[in-house]
Write a structure and sequence with these properties.
This protein is an alpha/beta fold. The protein is built from 6 helices and 11 strands.
Length: 234
């Protein structure tokens, strides 16, 4: 990389500095908008002891399911894990710590982390197991739970298009958790479908400004469909 150009050509460059026992955010929702190549590269590197923050844990044999195969995740902070049988097994056996978080709360914890807000109050979860051990407080006659924000050593995200400075555009539902995670990583690596020259992106269409992105790599994506439904009569 030179000057403002944040494009790297290899996954070794994209993940330089990543080590065991780090906290890693991984964008995506189900299998939509996940950084497939970055996930695969960490799988091949055998990074261990990961605290992983993601909406979900992929499926068996794909996405973050690969990390589960090698027992690379020590703690999983997520909101939905119903598509992965191995995840259930590791959780029940105690081999992996699981911190289930309501989806809106998880999104706000990440957004707050990226905004430099250390904690916030939410009514979600009050009076349930979600609030166990957490500070609660009354505001205007209603009880709230204090939730600490989340930041990561690395945020691995997927975008549709980037310029060489690291400005990003996401496409349709692949936007999901990626934009907020881009702001909450000490090092944010964006795996993208297309890289263009600075000035080619419409400024009004940029979702993540380059200030949040440290590295950009062009990937190739299988874009596996989680559940394929077809009409057999056609």
């Amino acid at each position: 990389m030179s000057g403002l150009n944040k494009v790297v050509s290899t996954y070794d460059q994209a993940l330089a500095g990543i080590q065991d026992n780090m906290t890693i955010m991984c964008g995506g929702f189900g299998l939509c908008g996940i950084p497939e190549g970055l996930i695969q590269s960490i799988y091949q590197r055998n990074i261990k002891g990961i605290t992983c923050i993601s909406n979900n844990a992929g499926v068996d044999g794909f996405g973050l399911g690969l990390w589960l195969e090698k027992r690379q995740i020590k703690t999983m902070i997520a909101s939905y894990v119903g598509e992965n049988a191995l995840f259930e097994q590791l959780s029940i056996s105690g081999e992996m710590e699981v911190i289930l978080t309501p989806q809106g709360t998880l999104a706000e914890k990440i957004r707050a982390g990226g905004a430099g807000i250390p904690a916030f109050y939410t009514a979600t979860g009050y009076g349930t197991m979600v609030a166990a051990g957490k500070e609660t407080r009354e505001f205007n006659g209603k009880m709230y739970v204090m939730e600490p924000s989340l930041i990561a050593d690395f945020s691995l995200i997927k975008a549709w298009k980037a310029d060489k400075f690291g400005n990003l555009i996401y496409k349709k539902t692949a936007r999901n958790f990626n934009p907020i995670m881009a702001t909450a990583g000490r090092i944010t690596v964006a795996e993208v479908e297309e890289i263009v020259e600075p000035g080619e992106l419409n400024p009004d269409e940029i979702h993540t400004p380059s200030i949040y992105v440290q590295r950009v790599i062009q990937g190739s994506f299988e874009k596996r469909i989680e559940r394929l439904t077809i009409n057999e009569s056609q």
